[in-house]
Amino acid sequence: MTTPNIPARKRSGADEETMTEWLMIHQREVAWAVVAIAIIVGGFWYYERSQAIKAQRAEAAYFQARQSAAAGNLPLAVSDLQKVVSRYEGTSAGTQAALTLAQTFYDQKKFKEGVDVLKAAEAKAPADFKASVHILEAAGYEELKNLVAAAEQYKLAAQVTRFPVDKSEYLASAARDYMAAGKTEEAKAIWTDLVKDETAPTAAEARVRLGEL
Questions:
Q1: Shared fold status for 31-124 and 126-213
Q2: In terms of C-beta density within 10 A (0-12 exposed, 13-18 middle, 19 or more buried), how is residue 65 classed?
Q3: Any idea which fold 126-213 has?
Q4: Tell me: domain 31-124, CATH 1.25.40, correct?
């Protein structure tokens, strides 16, 4: 019986030599790969660090603007808030400044100016503030008697909120504005959805409203 030829296993030393030879041949590629990884890691660290510094500066600037408002210097407060909004757009402090600035305009009956501030802050607002932006914007549209636009903002707030109770409340507000604007079908669609959830605080109102339509 013929014994089959079984290839001899390579020694570990041979494997090491092969790897060493490969590294020597491709040392330039390896070096560039190491440099690329270092750049990526360094860039990520730099970005995170710069964002943290930006957030800290935004908080300080927002605090200063609030101090101006608390001191009763409304023109300075508005100016400071506008600077925070423009310089630190997309940060938590920048969005809070936009909300405060809009409310300041509302207090002066400047509802269009307030809505404009919020409209500009919508897209880049952090997730935790998006619902607040839409709710305050809806309030501005209500004062401007643009109830359809107000309803749309309430619906957007319902889409981004994390809390089911708030979602039903925002949708109910949207339905009320649609009804007041004569948009019966839009209001009916919302009330029909709300009445399905018996545990929602708006379920009872939804049944009453549907009976009225």
A1: yes
A2: buried
A3: 1.25.40
A4: yes
Alpha helices, DSSP H, located in 71-163: 74-87, 92-107, 111-121, 127-143, 147-160
Instruction: Retrieve residue 59's tokens.
Output: 């908080």
Which residue in this structure is represented by tokens 């500009």? 120
Neighbours of 138 (CB within 10 A): 27
Region at 137 (left for phi over 0; alpha for psi -120 to 50; beta for the rest): alpha
Residue 128: predicted pLDDT: 92
Q: What is the mean pLDDT of each run of 10 residues along the chain (213 residues)?
A: 49 58 64 60 50 62 71 80 88 92 94 96 93 97 98 97 94 96 95 88 88 82
Dihedral of CA 156/159/163/167: which sign? positive
CB distance 44 to 67 below 8 Å: no
Residue 99, both tokens = 């909300």
Residues 32 and 40: beta-carbon distance below 8 Å: no
Q: What angle do CA 94, 98, 101 make, to 5 degrees?
A: 130
